[in-house]
Request: fold
Amino acid sequence: MPQPPLTIHEAMEVHELLNFETICAMKAKGMEGLVTDRELKALMEQILQQSIQAIEKLQPLLAGLPLSGNQPPSMLQQTPMPPTQNAEVK
Reply:
C-alpha cells in the first residue's frame, strides 16, 4: 500500500529530525579523534551508527518533495530597485 504524501507540517518535522541526526553524526565523527576513553569512544561510535541509520530512514521520506512551490510568492516578484549612487556625506 503506497504511503500518502507528507503534509507541509510533517515534511518540516522530518526535515528538522534529519538536520538533528546530521548534526549528531557530524559531532560524533568530529570528536572521534579527540576521545581517548574506550567506553566513551564506543558510545560515540554507537551514536554515529544510530544517526547514520536514522538519516538513511528519513531521507526517502523527503525524496521527491518540491523544495518550494511551483511559483514564488507575488511579493518576491517585485521589480528590482535601481542601483543607488554613492553620495558624499558632508
